[in-house]
Structure formats: C-alpha cells, structure tokens
Amino acid sequence: MSLRVYNTLTHKLETFQPLEEGKVRMYVCGPTVYNYVHIGNARVFVFFDVVRRYLQDKGYDVTYVQNFTDVDDKLIQRAQEENTTVQEMAERYINAYFEDMDAIGVKRADIHPRATEHIAEMQEGIERLIEKGYAYAVEGDVYYRALHKNDYGKLSHQSLEELKAGARVEVNERKETPLDFALWKSAKSGEIAWESPWGKGRPGWHIECSAMSKKYLGDTLDIHAGGTDLCFPHHENEIAQSEAWTGKPFARYWLHNGYINMGNEKMSKSRGNIATVHDLRKKFEPRALRYFLLSAHYRNPIAFSHETIQQMESGLERIDTAVINLRHRMKSALDGGVEADVVAALASLSQRFTAEMDDDFNTANAISVLHDWAGLANEVLSRPTVSRSTLEELLDWMKQRGADILGLVDLAEEEDLDVTVESLIQERQQARAKRDFARADVIRDQLQEMGIILEDTPQGVRWRRK
C-alpha cells in the first residue's frame, strides 16, 4: 500500500507523489512569537514532526522549513505593553519555543527562517505582483487584488459570496474590495519599519510565508501544512499571491490538523482558555503531552483535560516498563537465534503499523500497535528462557517505530543504580532467601520512597523508576 494523504485542496485522499522522485519539500507555518506556545499550537508542530520522521523512514530526502513570524500587530502591541522592543520580545519567545519543543521531542526544522530577515524577498514579490496587475499601492500601503485571480477561494472551497460574508475585515476605504488584503503596511509612529518603494513600513502576514517558502523550497512545494484555522485567510491568500507571482502551482498537498478543545470551545489565545506547553511540562511527563497530541487522528478535534494527560502517562508507563524489563532480562539472556514465533509476530505488527501510517498518518491507530508490541514483549518475558537476539529484535522494532518515528518511547540506556540502591536490592534478596519477609518488605518500601519500583518475577527481580 502506498502512502495516501488527505489533500485539503481537493478534499480527497490521494496517493502521495512528490514533484521530484525521492525528495520532499515541506513547509509548515510556525508561531507568531509574542507568547508561549499553547498545547493547541503544539499539535501542529508535533504532528508534522512525525510526518517528517515517517517520510524520512520511507527513504525520502526531506527538506523541512518552519518559519517564525517575528513582526506582527500582536508583537508590536505586546512589546509596547511591556516597554520592550519587538526584536527582544521575538528573541525571548523563539528561545522559549525551542525549549518547549525540545522537551516534547520536536526535532528542529532544517531551516527556521525569520520574517524580519527576508524583507528584501518580500518586497521583490510585492513589486512583481504590482507589475502583473495583481496588487496596487495606495498611500504607503500595498494590497492584493483578491478578485483578480479567478480561482480565489479554491483551498477553503468557498464561493466569493461566502468569502465576502465570512471575512472579518476592518473598514478600509482605500481597498478596492473588502477581500483585498495587505501585502505592505505603512508605518505608524514609533513602530518598527523598513524602507520600501512605497514608503516606510512592514510586510503583511501572508506575504512572509510566500517569500520564505519560495526562497528555500522553490516555486512549488510538495507539502504545505498548518492548523485548520490557517486555511482561510492565511493559506488561501498565500496560494493567491504565490501563484500570481510565479505562474506555477504553489503546493501539491495541503494538510491541516484539527483544533484542540477546552471544554466546548476551541482553545485559543484570543479566548484566553489556553494551556501552555511551558506550564504543562512542569506538571506532566513531557512525552505524555506528545502522546496526547498524537492520540487522535490529526484531522479530528481533540478534547484537552489534565485527566486525559494523566491517562497518557499511564499508557506510556506500560510501554516503558516493557522496555526496561527487556533490557534487564538481557543481562541473563542466552545466546541463540531469534525465536521464529517472535519474528512472525513482529512482522505482523510491522505490517499493521505501516498500514496505519500510510493511511493519512493515522498515529492514533499506530500507537495501538505499540501497545500490542508491549503485550508481545511481556509474553516473551514470561518464558523461562529467551535468547538475547530475540530481546534485541524486540527492542529494535520499538526503536524504529516508537522512538524514531513517533518520538514517544525513551530508549536511553538503563541507568546504573547507585551503590546504595544496589546494596538495598541485594540485601532484600538475601532477606527473602532467609525467609525474613518483614525485612524484605521494609526494604521494598524504602526503595519505593527513593523512586524505585521492584517487581518479583520467575525470571528474577525487575526494577523501574517511578
């Protein structure tokens, strides 16, 4: 089965075929850096991190670009409120973004362009759009003629009447039509600004991504992605201006993830009902946040609650425990080949995992395959004897899928217990051998207070950290 993706542009599941064989050009809209990233924003970055990882696992050479919007009305307003500069504000929250994303396992993009570093490219695009009749300047502002492109609205699948009725536009008599949008904004007193052929000002939001994606990925992208809230107007306007600029299709596949709901409402900064990754990762295992964000199909909405994150922690613990126990058992495992039934079981799990991921990146079902792997691992661990090769095969399977693709499983080498803990475990074993179970229980409780959980099995004592 080939990889199929749901293309917002066509409203269809399509077989994925990049423009150039073996290469993928992928652009994901990044954050506007005036605050910490909330868990709704993080869904974009976690999910498309997995998309990139999976494409690489399938052998594609992926160039992944994710921008920072570091000049914007919100940034300017927030900087004024805090009596700081837009540059300082942006730098602070870009650093915070990386700290949060590192914590939840999001790998850095190949390129993280900033809008303020690409003003020349944006001005070049605006000049070209004016020359071709798609844009017009008025009193220091430049607007794009939305109705000049006869397929405007093709991404959001709305008629012009629907777009006009639904567009939230401020009253602006300088626009030729209400749907026209700003490519360049004239400077207000005290605002950050750049020189331009139309006077001092700054770029509009939409032209940023068109200019940066063109510079780093070319005229036509394979994948352009972001949250569903960006479909209109941001991505719609990107298509319009980019295709008018280059005369070529802008992106082959458009992917949009669903909202996260807080109660009955969409989570958003404007509603003030947000939960930031910065705060949540202090309360919960960061991988549990990632698990939560991948626990539903990416196009479906997902409901957030602290109780749900706690459930994700429990789900991770089951898999982590199987991994730890496999590592522990390897210390006493025998030499020998991989058991045939385990080879067959892993092959079946592999087939299922690939089928789910090839079906429009169904991470929810792929995670369920990880839990079936944990069941297999526990069954193997219950056997009186097992070969080291079998255990290694089980761990390698989980590394490729649970760690390298989904980024959920921690396969760091097992820590050496410090001398005190090691001594207590040995003392407990001696107490049990002497049938001094009262002393053995005291030591178990003492270890538990230290964060060490012991499990007595027919194959010996297993341990794990809380």
TrEMBL record:
A motif ('KMSKS' region) lies at residues 266-270. This is Cysteine--tRNA ligase. The lineage of its organism: Bacteria, Bacillati, Bacillota, Bacilli, Bacillales. Belongs to the class-I aminoacyl-tRNA synthetase family. The keyword Transmembrane helix does not apply. GO terms for biological process: cysteinyl-tRNA aminoacylation. ATP binds at K269. It comes from the Bacteria. Its cofactor is Zn(2+). Its EC number is 6.1.1.16. GO terms for cellular component: cytosol. A motif ('HIGH' region) lies at residues 31-41. Monomer. Keywords: Aminoacyl-tRNA synthetase, ATP-binding, Coiled coil, Cytoplasm, Ligase, Metal-binding, Nucleotide-binding, Protein biosynthesis, Zinc. InterPro entries: Cys-tRNA-ligase (IPR015803), Cys-tRNA-synt_Ia_DALR (IPR015273), Cys-tRNA/MSH_ligase (IPR024909), CysS_C (IPR056411), Rossmann-like_a/b/a_fold (IPR014729), tRNA-synt_1_cat_dom (IPR032678), tRNAsynth_Ia_anticodon-bd (IPR009080). One of its GO terms (molecular function) is cysteine-tRNA ligase activity. Pfam families: CysS_C, DALR_2, tRNA-synt_1e. Residues 414-441 form a coiled coil. Binds 1 zinc ion per subunit. Zn(2+) binds at C29, C209, H234, E238. It catalyses: tRNA(Cys) + L-cysteine + ATP = L-cysteinyl-tRNA(Cys) + AMP + diphosphate. Residues 352-417 form the Cysteinyl-tRNA synthetase class Ia DALR domain. Gene3D superfamilies: Cysteine-tRNA ligase, C-terminal anti-codon recognition domain, HUPs. It is an enzyme of class 6 (ligase). It is found in: Cytoplasm.
